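Box 3.1 A note on notation
Throughout this textbook, protein chains are presented in two layers. The first layer is the amino acid sequence; the second is a token string describing backbone geometry. Keep the layers aligned when reading.
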Amino acid sequence: MADTGGHGGAPQRAAPSGHGGAPQRAVPGGHGDPGERGAAVRRAGEGDGTDTGGGDPASTRTVLIAAGANLAIALAKGVAALFTGSAALWAETLHSVADTGNEVLLFVGLRRSTREPDRTHPFGYGQERYFWAFLAALGIFLVGGVLSIAEGVRDLLVPEPLRSPWVGIGVLVVSAGFEAYSWNTARRQLREEARSRQRTLVEQLNRVSDPSASTVYLEDSAALIGIALALLGVVLDTVTGQVFWDAAASVCIGLLLMVVAWLLARRSKALLTDESAPPDVLDRVTALLAGFPDVAEIREVQAVYMGPSQLMVAAWVRLPADVVAGSAGDALRAVRRIRAHLLSHPRITEAAVLVVDPDGTDDAPVEPNADRTSTTP
């Protein structure tokens, strides 16, 4: 799980001195109703090239290209599997069928996640994309992984000689070209996003807030490796006359897909369970607050993704001495200005500001399960 990396200790709560000793409750400074939050969600989805998620148009294009390529490949592999009787080709057919279905699930997630916030979902539907990506991972595991292994085991128990192996080899070579095009599209999107965030491609895969491109990239990477395994199995079966090679390739393809499904499910689970935003994102939020006139000290910043490129932020800050020395109204207005400043960033769709004690008397760490004063309406 990503940590908060370098933003101080556990969050502290206290009131500014002279305001009664109870925790200061921050009051929203904007975006307080679903309609206004909807504007923030739309702004977050438009993309400015600086966030981890990427814009919806790029993700939609990546998903649609992958779906078209996988559908054509599945049909071609299915015909070749019928001609040759190859277990590896049947495994690859199942692989491509699973991938096609997964792209459909990702597209559904893309569409449903852009719905406006409402009373039942006041922070929007952004996390729907994570749910559909999780279903896609299950599809890879069951349709691609389990059935491919079952086909390989069946071929080991009831061996069938290959027929017209060159048909299968030709189809696999052509399929590799389609898969490589889809893979390169997803790779370009991920590399552009990684470059804008000054990350490596591996870091981007582990930290991305939009699972669409990363799912397509990992699926297509597995597809290219699977095609290589299927080719190896068919060629060795043809050269040696041993059915074992073709069946073993089918089992290996199934195991590969299970690994990919686990990697995808793990990332979707992290996003669905509100894992902390990665350290570099927290650093940028901290930098946004640093130097703001109403912030004397930043004690802690936390953030989670409510959807691709949609951050919910909580900030524990100390107000300047002159504000603390003033009236409660002065402190309240300062908190509102801080929150409005956070919400001005296109990637922050909701923010909470909590004020800590200026004299440091509450510096003892708060237990993880301790009650915290909420600042959202």
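Residues 134 and 266 are 9 Å apart (CA to CA). The longest strand covers residues 297-307.
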